[in-house]
Specification:
260 residues; alpha+beta; Fumarylacetoacetate hydrolase, domain 2; 13 strands; binds hexanedioic acid; binds magnesium ion
Length: 260
């Protein structure tokens, strides 16, 4: 049996988020397996729920081949987005509430039906999806200089921090999501671009993987979940005064500003 104190690591990471303070990665002192890391994440989620926050939906991370190769992993990771993380489209994030935020452009799914793995496919995900929208995810690792191992980032709720969801939902059968081009602009300049296929071949595959990973823990995707499928663009650093915009072909735009 593992001697890792999941609750105290979760409290430590939660406090770092609340106090907007970067901390030394957990595995520098305490070895964590992937299983341990998800146990810490579960405690972190429980702590936030106890404090009255509500889950908006799970999110997938490390879904691009480049990020998986960089972290030497075969499988993406997941975390959870909470209500306090949601910023309205066109709204602002406050730089002083965060540690060292970065932004990436994604496609989010709004689920119409529950999906329970194992064995879920992308086609089943599309059949269970009500709408898709462009999204901007603001990630803010609690670790010094965004430096971590895979178990560290899983324990840290996959760096989840803020999210801006587009407000023009589109039915998923209206377009081929793997071919959708997404461009990330900061202050009117293109920072990065990519296509939906950057996310494990198709964003729906990302949710199928999520359903199958959740099934190992006896959990499922629920109708009403808003799910971030993973970065289509790379993550760009944010500064006070930035205006951030993502344009997704056929899906529209989503934006926010960075205030002090
Ligand atoms: O949403 C993501 O892909 C982020 C996962 C965690 C990795 C990072 O913080 O860069
Ligand atoms: Mg992301």
């Amino acid at each position: 049996m593992s001697s890792v104190d999941y609750k105290s690591i979760a409290s430590f990471l939660h406090l770092a988020e609340v106090e907007k303070r970067e901390v030394v990665r957990i595995t520098k002192e305490t070895p964590l397996s992937i299983e341990d890391a998800y146990r810490v994440q579960e405690e972190l989620v429980a702590l936030k729920l106890e404090q009255g926050h509500r889950i908006v939906g799970p999110k997938m991370g490390l879904t691009s081949r480049a990020k998986m190769k960089q972290m030497n992993v075969e499988e993406p990771i997941y975390g959870y987005i909470f209500d306090y993380m949601v910023v309205p489209d066109g709204g602002s994030i406050k730089r002083q509430e965060l540690i060292h935020p970065k932004v990436e452009a994604e496609i989010a799914f709004i689920m119409g039906k529950d999906i329970e793995g194992p064995g879920i496919t992308g086609a089943q995900v599309l059949a269970a999806t009500e709408y898709v929208v462009p999204a901007l995810e603001i990630i803010d690792s609690r670790y010094e200089n965004f430096q971590f191992t895979l178990p560290d980032v899983i324990a840290d709720n996959a760096s989840s921090s803020r999210v801006v969801i587009g407000n023009r939902p589109i039915r998923p059968d209206q377009l081929e999501l793997d071919l959708v081009g997404v461009t990330l602009f900061i202050n009117g300049e293109i920072k990065d671009l990519g296509a939906g296929a950057a996310v494990v071949g198709h964003p729906a595959n990302s949710i199928a993987m999520l359903a199958n990973m959740l099934a190992r823990r006896g959990e499922k995707i629920k109708a009403g979940d808003v799910i971030l499928t993973g970065g289509i663009t790379g993550a760009a650093m944010l500064s006070v005064g930035d205006t951030v915009l993502a344009k997704a072909d056929g899906l529209g735009e989503v934006s926010f500003k960075v205030s002090e």
